[in-house]
Specification:
Layout (H helix, E strand, L loop, with lengths): L11 H11 L3 E4 L6 H8 L5 E4 L3 H13 L4 E6 H6 L1 H9 L6 E5 L15 H4 L1 H7 L4 E4 L7 H12 L3 E5 L5
Parallel strand pairs: 1-2, 1-3, 3-4, 4-6, 5-6
Helix pairs in contact: 1-2, 1-8, 3-5
Amino acid sequence: MTTAPDARPVPAADFYRAMLDAGITDVVAVPDTHVRSLISRLLGSTEIRFIQTATEDEAITLAAGLIIGGRKPLVQIQHAGLYACVNHLRGVAMDGAFPMVFMIGLLGRDPAKPPREHFESLVRYAQPILDALEIPHHLVEGPDDVGLLAAAYEEAEARGGPVAVLIGEATS
């Protein structure tokens, strides 16, 4: 069994600042209760546009269009949505070579366990699915990790494809 430090909530204000620092222009989301405080912060923003979609597939295609139009979107979904959008993730983001960053909330995760050792399959299989798709991913375990967002954008640009940032604990 791997031991890991307990995941800690990241304040929404910290994530918001990290988004501004990364140059994010839009958040295209299927709202996730795991990051509801961040969504509330974004809804009041005049600097980052929040676009709510009905499905993860719609979020991916909309984000691709925004990238074509010169914008820098973040796709925000929940881990269950990752499973729902694998075909569009592959067909649009990967095959289309879009430098797209996904923020994926691990809703219901036990913060004392690494995701791969979680009792719930939705949490446990998120990283292995990303590995199988050869999509690099980073785990945000607390406030010190918000810089991973900017790093994910640099990586997505360098590789010409998607990168995921997994949110280990609900935002505060």
